[in-house]
Amino acid sequence: MKTILIALITLYAGLTLAEESARYVEPPYEEPKVVYDFYLDDPEKINSALYWIRSLINPLTEAPYNYAPEFMDIKVVIHGTEIATVAKKNYAQYEEAVERMRYYAALGVEFKVCNLAATDYDYQVADFYEFIEVVPSAFPELVHWQQQGYALITPQVFTRTRTIEEDR
Q1: C-alpha to C-alpha distance for 53 and 50, rounded to whole angstroms
Q2: In sequence order, which residues have a C-beta less than 8 Å from that of residue 55 and are 6 or more positions away?
Q3: What is the largest CA-CA distance in the chain?
Q4: Which among 36, 42, 68, 162 counts the fewest CB atoms within 10 Å?
Q5: Residue 127, Cβ neighbours under 10 Å: how many?
Q6: Is the pTM of this model over 0.90?
Q7: Upstream peptide bond of 64 is cis (omega within 30 degrees of 0)
Q8: Where on the tree of life does the source sit, at the highest rank (predicted)?
């Protein structure tokens, strides 16, 4: 009898769960204070990393939030191989990324390059675009902004080996 009762309860729970589905919610988000840590192993991954910024800004500019991007406090600290994308001499190769960063900069996103990394690449301050600020080092910069209450986001950009359709 006990076994039959357990089986019925399990069957009922399974049927109930199968009928339920997820629900869409709108959390009470506030205007963000974020510092992104860009440290990529391939400069070509910059475009994917920049989508992380878009994925923060776009939902917050739409209803019900309707925040203006100019009032979102977003900083990006660049200190990996992607530093090559913000060197003026590489514009032809990274034009799409540069123009997206320039667009975000016009919305108030601050792009900061680590001087230690710049030195490793033999870059000088004058080698970077007008929307770039060169800071002494990425690590004190990241720590500073976190101490000021900024959330840290570190994009992880993977090389896709399968299509979305294959993953479904």
Answers
A1: 5
A2: none
A3: 82
A4: 162
A5: 18
A6: no
A7: yes
A8: Bacteria
Kindly give, in sequence order, each residue whose CB lies less than 8 Å from that of residue 49, ignoring residues fewer than 6 positions away: 36, 38, 40, 82, 155, 157
SS (H, E, C) the chain: CHHHHHHHHHHHHHHHHHHCCCCCCCCCCCCCEEEEEECCCCHHHHHHHHHHHHHHHHHHHCCCCCCCHHHCEEEEEECCHHHHHHEHHHHHHHHHHHHHHHHHHHCCCEEEEEHHHHHHCCCCHHHECCCEEEECCHHHHHHHHHHCCCEEECCCCCCCCCCHHHHC
CA torsion sign for 159, 36, 80, 130 is: positive
Domain 33-158: state its class: alpha beta
